[in-house]
Structures
1.
Amino acid sequence: GIDFLERYAKFVKERLEIEQNYAKQLRSLVKKYCPKRSKDEEPRFTSCLSFYSILNELNDYAGQRELVAEEMAHRVYGELMKYSQDLKAERKHHLQEGRKAQQYLDQCWKQMDNSTKKFERECRRGREVPLRSLFERLDNEHSTSSPNADVEKDAKNQFYARTHAADESKNEYASQLQNFNAEQWKHFNNAIPHIFKNLQAMDERRTVKLGETYQSFAEAERRVIPIVSKCLEGMTAAAKAVDERRDSAIVVESFKSGFEPPGDYPFEDFSQNLSRTGSDGTISNTPKGEREKDGGTGPRPDPKHNMSRPKNKLWLFGKKPKKAPSLEDFSHLPPEQRRKRLQQRIDELHKELQKEMDQRDALNKMKDVYEKNPQMGDPSSLQPKISETICNMEKLRSEIHKNETWLTEVEGKQSSRDRRHSADNHQRPPQGRESPEGSYTDDTSQEQHTPRHHARPPQPHRNSDPHEFDDEFDDDDPLPVIGHCKALYGFDGENEGTLSMAEDEVLYIIEEDKGDGWTRARKQTGEEGYVPTSYVDITLEKSSKGAVTYI
């Protein structure tokens, strides 16, 4: 029975190893087809999202297989091996008890056998010397000599000794025989049945334990059925979530260029240049004067060039044009793609700017703590880092403003194109620089090197972009002075709308920072513009009229 139990334990071990290998292979498969991706590589199509959802569910399913293997290892295989050791120890104990009982019975038999042999030996010795006949003869004859009396006495003593030894052997033999019979009865009626009963109970417990482990083996599978069912339901839901129209819309949104379709090609009447001849008839009935009036003598377009343009443009079904070099303003991309890339870059720059602002605030707070508690650190040691952070913020703001200018340019073109379409839906634009598939004109350098006119920063207002300035400063009434400031650092003021200042220069404050990091100031010469708030030490005059505080 113990051998069968160990055989079943070996079966469970091999089964759980199969489960472990299966789960491991499933996880490897999921990892192979679902690698780590960056944020830009996150799938957007419903078919891809559903596939990754199925992979996640499959990964959870693999986890359930691992759980089955763990349950079998602990609750079945582990229990069986432990119980097998206990059974072996218990069986050894019972067999030792049986051997002890048998040894005790053998000892009793040996004692009885010895007493039997002793009794037999004493009786045989008594028969070898006819003491009784000798004693009777001497008793009948009356000898007169003294030696005969001594012989008689010795013979009597010897006879009595032999008789006494035989009686004692007999008594001992009877006692040992009685004891052996009693122990033999106990051995076969009490000790051996008790040992066999214990062995039987042990084997019955082994059988019950096998039944329990069979049930535990099945329960390990049954426990994971609800979660496995949820995994399968998740896979089914992912399959139902595939939306072909949504995927198509994503493709269109991702690759639409924003170009207008090319305009219609005009009819070119090459027969206008033919002169009328009387012999072969007239090819054209149009008078020569009218032909000249219509521009027949003007420059003729190159038919070869015009006929080849559509072929070069429609590269989706033909030959793909050479890839244009990437430019900083993304002008090599179609308008819609350019707008998306510019907006994405602006969002990234805003995030970087926010990090720099948070770092600046943290450094300023640390500097205040150092100033209040000099033993914690030197405040001046933080100044280089603060200056570096401020410079980074200025660079990021400049980049944001530059990209916003480009974005405004793209959106302006698109809005004007939309207005053109709404004004005349049937009018087609002439052969221009834009095509549906993303190529511009034959001379791409014309647009790539078009000078960019950076508009003056618009005036910042509440909840607006933090880096826009006023488009103009020529208000009829100058703004009142609400305070003054001292420049902590020099500022170039390269962008239009900003005001250059030298270190330690004193300026008048005419408009507070509205939360965008810029303060409007005026020089003593009357020149106005925006300066970085972090570059100046501001003192406001609360009693001044016209002072406005934005919260």
2.
Amino acid sequence: MRDTNFGFPREPPTTSPAPAEAAAEPSPKRRRVGEAAEEPPPPPELEMGEESLERLRGVVRDSVGKHLYSSAIFLADKVAAATGDPADVYMLAQALFLGRHYRRALHLLNNSRLLRDLRFRFLAAKCLEELKEWHQCLLMLGDAKVDEHGKVLDQDYGSDIYFDKDSENHEINIKAAICFLRGKAYEALDNRDLARQWYKAAIKADPLCYEALECLVDNYMLTCEEESELLSSLQFGKEDGWLSSFYSCLIRKHEKEYVVEAKFKELERESCSISSSSSGETLKNNIDVLACKAEYYHQSGEYQKCWQLTSSLLERDPFHLKCTLVHLAAAMELGHSNDLYLLSCNLVKDYPQKALSWFAVGCYYYCIKKYDQARRYFGKATGLDGTFPPAWIGTGIAYAAQEEGDQAMTAFRTAARLFPGCHLPTLYMGMQYVRMHNFKLAEQFFTQAKSICPSDPLIYNELGVVAYNMKEYQKAVQLFELTLDHTSSSLNEMWEPTLVNLGHALRKLKKYQKAVSYYEKALTFPTKSLSAFAGLAYTYHLMDDFEASINYYHKALWLKPDDQFCTDMLTYALESSCHSTARRRIV
């Protein structure tokens, strides 16, 4: 290869005396008059036959498969130069894109004058996506409109005339890919409404375009009702029944246990159609499926079951990030601070640029009640990825834990604006208003949360608390009973406060026997609360069962010896018991 000197001036050539041997060399033989000149050797043959071209195309594909992108670019360039065929030009552009030569690939595609072809246009738009030129990306994809239901209007998709049609059944529809890319561009430009509509258009164009549904679900762009409507509108192929079942499991996290279990069994049955008959394996043990089940356990309050399942999954695949997020949430609820510390250290080491890693650090500090540090790391997570919902919600909860209501409300409002399909920010805002004793405003926010996700039992519990504080005890009883109806088939300790609340409301209505039954049910859980003991003691006191009330006042004071209500009522119960005993003796 020639020395280019990289633009520096060349040094003058060094002259040296001719060697003595050169003078002794004989002069070249003189040609006689009329003697023919010797023919120069022919240049090497540069043309390639079809067999050679096909071999080089195969080598290019193999180089891409082996991630040898420079080799792929070099060979694809020669093939495209030899043939000028649009398919070979596309192959070269693809190699340039994979080799991260985005400007060069874009220049090639623009000069090819083949941008009417969908694949050329899409690849050019992908180059602009990598260059973060979002407006140019949308211009490259062309003008189009989409309605609220994801139906594309007035778009000229051009043609894809240069490629073999036989492979279309084995590809994701190019129109779905274009719709998805539009959605990403609009999301990057903070136009989340149009992004949502184009993601819906992408998944409707081809249900196999999982990335579109992933963006809709993970970024909480749809309410529960909208998710169900979207799923019912998808046109799945005959062989894609398993995919329909998986999507159904993915979006329904607050349903009854028997409904969710039926969905997972249906998925297992449908997966048999794509399983190898020789292996006998199904999707039953697939990590994505089990991570989805773990998320359901977490939503149902089955934190121990969730923890055990995610622990086993992370042993199989320690880098499954969706499972890792559920694992973090379960560890937080169970107070496993050591596990949170180890997990967060590993995540920061392996993924220092991911929001999840710093969110994990924030979870650790929140678990050990260092809320200032927790807020700082939740803030770092939102700085890395402003569309990461758990970090915004974590920031608000950390502020709320320090009684900093204004900052908490700001974080929750931001989350509610960014993630309109997530009911948690609205729910937590309502809880903040309950703390401020602004029950009317709290009720509005709880009602709004209910419109987003009507199947979450926690919403009905909070509405019941509002009704109780507004002295609407019959309404409170109905809402607390509705809470229990929406929980999974087996109650767990997460719903102990609801049982206690229901007991309080029934006591206010003077339905003492029913109140006692709910208090006793609440005390069957390991987390025995002061409120349950005090409520049961007071109910027995009102029933004039002084012996039982004194017993439960003592148990309540064992949990909190300085509780003023129980201390005063115990004194009153002892006096009443003495008076009652004295009266019986007199009689």
